[in-house]
Write a structure and sequence with these properties.
This protein has about 700 residues and is of the alpha+beta class. Helices cover about 50% and strands about 10% of the residues. Helix 11 packs parallel to helix 14, helix 23 runs parallel beside helix 27 and helix 24 crosses helix 26.
Length: about 700
């Protein structure tokens, strides 16, 4: 663990313009810097770096944050790794504390495994410079269309035919047997103590971690198969403390930035598929080489994008793998399309035969949604057989059932109903039955609610409602359970859409409005006129924006319904109570380890970023102080109106259940509550000027 004083020293030392300039070409305008955003494609610079505040912000894609946040987002590092990166850049010594002897030993052991793997990459690369490595290995790469720059960039190499070449070189450099064995670079026969090379007479492909460290190798033989001598065409490193096959993807280090930037990933099968596509110019491509596609690999992709296109060979094996992959991606909450390369080709050979423009055109014309893909593929075999056609439709409906997002399921049901001319009710019944089986069996579905339910406290919002609570007499019902967001990098959305973090859409917009006021102007004083209902008249100082909102919420024990907004509000409150300035508070949120909070702070901490829904906010004749004083109280009324509508929704759902089981007493009770709720909603809307 990095000590807090060291963390603060790193954050205080890091200069946002210097950190960003390592990755982005910046030009100075006045006191600030501008450049083209590294997170999305643009020609006109909209990426703004503000040294005085220590933050960056893009007016195009709305990403923003601090120096540590930039490193995390651009290099896809964890919070501790980003701090270590900045410490190294500014020559700050990091002496980690509270590390047990076991933790220290494990970290040192892992570092030794990384170092021996990096030595191996250099060793295999050097073999291409002469001898059999150049004559056989380098020649093979050239015949496969790989350029020298690609070979160098991706660390390709050659493992010599001498079974002790690498072992002898590594031992001469002082690498211990235990690390050579654990990485799988060396092996030994049971009856002999000495080590020998595991990769022999093969071209080598280094496998990188997300942070760019060498963690394993894939190695391909160039020999033709000899009768009576079985052998593996590809040999991969065995698993180790630094390499877990089902959580690793070939090419992820080189592809991750473009996966995030383009919000899309192409998944292929082999090393050369990745290399040829990258060399062509399509660099958001990774492969699940050496293992069938796994949930761990899908979750790794999900860190950078939720849009995947499976690009496999068009043969029987490729089709079967694509069908399996579709269900796996959908179950994990990703959107998936499929492209099958024309028969006789694979992504490698197709990329080598065509220009970038031709491949991009082929992709745009042949990408198929999974319903179209499964439908055209399976219906072709079903022909006019009604039973086979029914089986195909059931199969596609079962695939829709694994999609965690209810709106997407509904959309696909509509699409499928039109496509196959099947009654929507019949499809809904099949999808519901299949989904019920998943849930009853305990099978995990991405996005399935978990954790404690959201409970709404009784609220009157007495300041903003002018005593209307007595008329309402409300005790809002508890709404359905919501999922808890995990902390850290995994909780950061793959794009700039805040809705991906929200569990309650009805409350979300009102909560965003309040947070925008707080994060952009939280320490600004409100100055009510003497005729205002909020004027205290007792000579007290005016409240700040945050104090006014906090008093309104605390007076009735209200909490935000969406967990990420609740955490952001609480974090701001803690920092505010420490007496920090507005810029210091926002910077703390941006610098924090919880990247979901940092993301929300970046999105909502500027007036320009967020177009509030309250009518008239941007009245050109109104100063900032004036519209804050006028609209902050209204935003609380909007918040309350949303709570009432959310309660109304919950009551309607309860009414349906009561009608289903014919519980008349419960029906009457709920209907009475609905009448009261609707009166309250109308009262609030009158206050807002939406109704008369």
């Amino acid at each position: 663990m990095i000590p807090q004083d060291t963390i603060q020293k790193i954050l205080d030392t890091a200069r946002i313009e210097e950190v960003v300039a390592d990755f982005v070409s910046l030009r100075k305008r006045g006191a600030d810097w501008w450049g083209c955003c590294p997170f999305h494609n643009e020609k006109t610079p909209s990426f703004h770096v503000v040294p005085a505040r220590g933050i960056y912000y893009c007016f195009g894609c709305h990403k923003g944050g601090s120096a540590v946040g930039f490193v995390m987002d651009h290099e896809h590092m964890s919070y501790p790794d980003a701090l270590r990166y900045l410490a190294k850049k500014y020559n700050i010594e990091v002496v980690e504390e509270e590390e047990s002897a076991e933790d220290l030993a494990a970290r040192q052991r892992n570092e030794s495994l990384y170092l021996v793997s990096e030595f191996a990459e250099n060793f295999f690369q050097k073999q291409l410079e002469g001898g059999e490595g150049k004559a056989v290995g380098l020649n093979y790469f050239h015949t496969r269309g790989l350029e020298d720059e690609t070979i160098r960039k991706y660390g390709l190499g050659w493992a010599p035919s001498d079974r002790h070449s690498f072992t002898d070189a590594a031992k001469e450099k002082g690498y211990k047997d235990e690390y050579l064995l654990e990485t799988g670079l060396c092996a030994k026969y049971d009856d002999k103590p000495e080590l020998h090379d595991r990769f022999v007479e093969r071209v080598t492909f280094p496998i990188h971690s997300v942070s760019g460290r060498i963690i394993a190798f894939g190695a391909r033989t160039l020999k033709a198969k000899e009768e009576g001598r079985p052998y593996a065409k590809y040999v991969n490193s065995k698993e180790s403390a630094i390499y877990v096959k089902n959580q690793s993807l070939y090419g992820i280090w080189f592809a991750k930035n473009d996966m995030a930037k383009n919000d899309k990933c192409f998944l292929v099968e082999g090393y050369l598929d990745v290399l040829s596509m990258h060399q062509l110019g399509i660099t958001n491509v990774v492969a699940s080489s050496g293992t069938a596609l796994t949930e761990g690999q899908i979750r790794l992709i999900r860190r950078f994008t939720r849009n995947v296109t499976i690009m496999y060979d068009g043969d029987e094996a490729g089709v079967k793998a694509a069908l399996r992959g579709i269900d796996m991606f959908l179950k994990e909450g990703l959107d998936v399309k499929v492209i099958l390369i024309p028969d006789g080709d694979d992504p490698d050979s197709y990329a080598r035969k065509h220009t970038l423009e031709e491949v991009e055109d082929f992709i745009s014309r042949n990408e198929k949604d999974f319903v179209d893909f499964k439908g055209s593929l399976l219906m072709r075999d079903a022909g006019n057989d009604p039973l086979k056609r029914a089986s195909v439709i059931n199969d596609i409906a079962d695939t829709i059932a694994v999609i965690p997002d209810a709106i997407k399921r509904e959309t696909y049901i509509d699409f499928m109903s039109r496509k196959f001319d099947i009654r929507r009710a019949a499809l809904e019944e099949r999808v519901s039955a299949t989904r019920a089986k998943f849930l009853s069996s305990g099978e995990a579905l991405a996005g399935r609610p978990s954790g404690p339910g959201r409970v709404h406290s009784r609220s009157a919002l007495r300041q903003a409602q002018d005593g209307a609570a007595a008329e309402y007499g409300l005790s809002p019902e508890a709404a359905p359970a919501v999922s808890e967001l995990s902390r850290g990098q995994e909780s950061r959305p793959a794009n700039d859409d805040l809705s991906t973090l929200e569990e309650n859409p009805i409350m979300a917009r009102a909560e965003r409005d309040l947070l925008n006021f707080i994060l952009a102007n939280g320490t600004t004083l409100l100055e009510f006129q003497s005729d205002s209902e909020f004027y205290s008249g007792d000579g007290e100082e005016s409240l700040t924006v945050f104090e006014f909102i906090r008093q309104a919420l605390d007076a009735d024990g209200i909490e935000f319904a969406n967990s990420v907004y609740k955490k952001t509000y609480e974090s701001y409150s803690d920092a505010y109570d420490e007496g920090l300035s507005q810029d210091e508070i926002v910077k703390r949120l941006l610098d924090g380890a919880d990247r979901a909070i940092a993301f929300v702070a970046a999105q909502l901490s500027t007036d320009e970023r967020y177009d509030l829904t309250i009518k008239g906010l941007r009245d050109a004749m109104m100063s900032k102080g004036s519209w804050l004083t006028k609209y902050v109280p209204k935003s609380i009324l909007v918040f309350h109106a949303c709570r009432l509508e959310d309660t109304e929704r919950s009551l309607k759902e309860e009414l349906k259940k009561a009608q289903t089981i014919q519980d008349q007493d419960r029906e009457v009770e709920i209907m009475r509550k609905l009448v009261t709720i609707r009166k309250a909603i109308k009262t609030v809307k009158v206050r807002l000027g939406r109704e008369k």
